[in-house]
UniProtKB/TrEMBL annotation:
GO terms for molecular function: 4 iron, 4 sulfur cluster binding; DNA binding; tRNA (N(6)-L-threonylcarbamoyladenosine(37)-C(2))-methylthiotransferase activity; zinc ion binding. This is Threonylcarbamoyladenosine tRNA methylthiotransferase. It is found in: Nucleus. Residues 420-480 form the MTTase N-terminal domain. GO terms for cellular component: endoplasmic reticulum; nucleus. Residues 1-22 are annotated as: Disordered. Belongs to the methylthiotransferase family. CDKAL1 subfamily. Residues 112-139, 140-167, 168-195, 196-223, 224-251, 252-279, 280-307, 308-335, 336-363, 364-391, 392-415 form the C2H2-type domain. Its EC number is 2.8.4.5. Residues 508-739 form the Radical SAM core domain. InterPro entries: Elp3/MiaA/NifB-like_rSAM, Methylthiotransferase, Methylthiotransferase_CS, Methylthiotransferase_N, MiaB-like_arc_euk, rSAM, rSAM_horseshoe, rSAM_sf. It catalyses: N(6)-L-threonylcarbamoyladenosine(37) in tRNA + (sulfur carrier)-SH + AH2 + 2 S-adenosyl-L-methionine = 2-methylsulfanyl-N(6)-L-threonylcarbamoyladenosine(37) in tRNA + (sulfur carrier)-H + 5'-deoxyadenosine + L-methionine + A + S-adenosyl-L-homocysteine + 2 H(+). Its main location: nucleus.
Amino acid sequence: MDLAGEDTNKTKDENLDSSSADEVFIKVEIGEDDDSEVNTQKETVVNHDKEAADVTHTAICESTVDEYCTISFPDELDQSENSHYSSLKDETNFNTQILEADDDSCQGDIPLECKYCSKVILKQSALLVHERTHTGEKPYLCKFCDKVFAYSGTLKTHESLHTGQRPHQCKLCGKTFNRPSLLKAHQNLHSGEEAYECKQCPKAFNTYSRLKTHQTTHLSEKPFQCSFCEKTFNTAHCTKNHERIHTGEKPYHCPYCTRTFSRVSGLIVHRRTHTGEKPYKCQFCESSFTTSNCLKRHERVHTGERPYQCHFCPKAFSQLSTVRKHESIHSDVTPYGCQTCDKSFPTISCLKAHEKTHCTDRPFKCQYCGKGIMSAAGLRIHLRKHTGEKPYACKYCGKAFSVTCSLKLHERIHTVAPWKSPAEDHFRNEINKAQQNGKHLVLSGCVPQAQPRAGYLQGVSAVGVQQIDRVVEVVEETLKGHTVRLFGQKKSEGKKIGGARLDLPKIRKNPLIEILAINTGCLNQCTYCKTKHARGELGSYPIEDLVERARQSFQEGVCEVWLTSEDTGAYGIDIGVTIVDLLWKLVEVIPEGCMMRIGMTNPPYILQHLEEIARILNHPRVYAFLHVPVQSASDSVLMDMKREYCQADFKRVMDVLKERLPGVTIATDVICGFPTETEEDFEETMELVRQYKFPSLFINQFFPRPGTPAAKMPQLDAQEKKKRTKQISVLFKSYHPYDHKLGERQNVLVTEVSHDKQFWVGHNKFYEQVLVPKEDGLLGKMVEVEIISTGKHYMMSKIVKEKEIFTPSVATPLAQGEISGLPKKVVVDSHPHSFWFPLSVILVGAAILYELIRIARQLVQR
């Protein structure tokens, strides 16, 4: 079978007029072999949808709009045609028909020859269209702009960009297109088919046109140069788009407003601001976006992906602009100089912000107050303060705002990711602040332990709670420029344990206070908490080790010990002892005047020890204070939380301790907006607060932790949670627990400085905060004061001058920043007012007297 007609290297007509070229012909000559003469010439017309005949063909694919080819294929002639046709199908916009070999001959058609290239074409209309490729004739004028086209189909496609007509809609996602070929290419995205593979790299594409665009990236040559500058490009299309930067041409007009664009892609994106179309949907949540780039940036919030790496440090970022801004902190180069002063800045945004400080011209005056504003946009925003206009409404609840930034901040209440609680937001902000300042960073605690793969933790050194005793080596390696991450969990006899050895050296934040962890992990299975996941099973330290650590602390000048634990009451269950056993042993080594504070405990584990706990809290060297979280007063909510107690259990703890210890301070926690909490459940919690009027109440709005059972429950509306939190906060502020103590005299152990540095902070027997005048020599002392005023969280006092100031410490406290736990000679405090100084003098005198009497007796006996 021979290919007849014109030379196969000649090009065919590139674009056929859709109005006149409804049928396309190919010329087939069939012979016995390659050298035989032509026996028969047949010309046939077939529809695109018909199957090819059951014979092997070799043919010219007229409809390729590209070039001649000679491809042999047994059964699917249309596949060869489509491989050529699809590349320019978008530009031609006509319905192609191809030939199928059959026995019917076309009669009456007279072959016509092109006078420019001698190509033979069978129809007059097709010949006219073909000759435009030689003459350059473009008879079709766009009625919206000055562009002209050679083919009516190309004109129709172009005009749809002006009119916005997109009649071809995807049945799967609703996205619309102005050409059926674009719809077909889009539908391949849903099917996931990527049939077009690049021969130079492993990439594949769902359309031939995208493959062709990609292949230009492999070209070393850029033959198309800009007419206005020296830039070169791979394609003429890219060159034309670039040249519009110089010419200012913006041929694409928005049909809804007066804006124009230099690229059709810009028009398409802009038009969505009018139509509200957001075709790009997030696969992780219900958010949708107008562009694929916005979608990619958003999805990195879920995946934690940070593809942009800093060239100077291990930090990575989710956006290119962020990494560029970050990299400027590594460089001393500040290329953006202010024209008014000598200052220069690393980024243009910093420069623009600085230049506003020099602007004295404020031409826009407010008609209400006369204030001058620098810009018309700023004036519009300012006027809303007077008019009350709030044009930006929340799409979730309808609340309106005067500026968009306030709206976005508000909408986070509805859309914020579950793991972004306020405390965690603060944690993230501190990390970002340190990174932006170029500091070395080491993280520790429950958050990195529970979410080690979180995006904002990538590239940062971190040490989990089970490996905290290795924090020094992690810091040392980080300072060398390495990133170290230790999240492994220690195990003992198959159980996960955590925490450092008690005998490790440490630096106390306050040299007067020893924070002593008595165990790690917990026994509970609370549905909202990740403590067990982060810290492992309950692991109690031996009593003798804890007592020895406490004794050493007092020898280093400590006068107050805080016992800490995830659940103090559970201490010893795993090693066969009780919390009561430990407390009595610790009391034995506490010097006179020093104090011990017991940490948080849940109701179930102290119910059986209530009487003993009451006696211990009544000891003069133990604060009459206990932290017992209730979380909710509703039994059904407590059951859903798996708290292992009921409201009656909590009330029993409260009533017994208040009866045995009048004035005892009991602090508690409540959670507002747990997923299964009803209005009635919440009212029970409110009533509990009214009944006991807790002097210390920690109010927490519920935020689901990823991976916990509570996070998988249907959540309450964010506004409802916020409302309940506010209601119980108002109730807590309505009573004043210390008013009845006005005028009382109290002994106070002074251990801290107030936040404003104006007072000493001390605590009385009930661990109530008392502010003491900041006189010299009071820190670390036990003083008697008189209460002169009260506040919600504190009492103000004056010193009773006639009373002696007592120093409880048995040794001089360590200096601020000095390492605790190292071998050290104990230095006895020789302060003249110390209790121990006169006592030591008396003891030494008594010993000398006793020795003299003994010697005298021996002499008498002799």
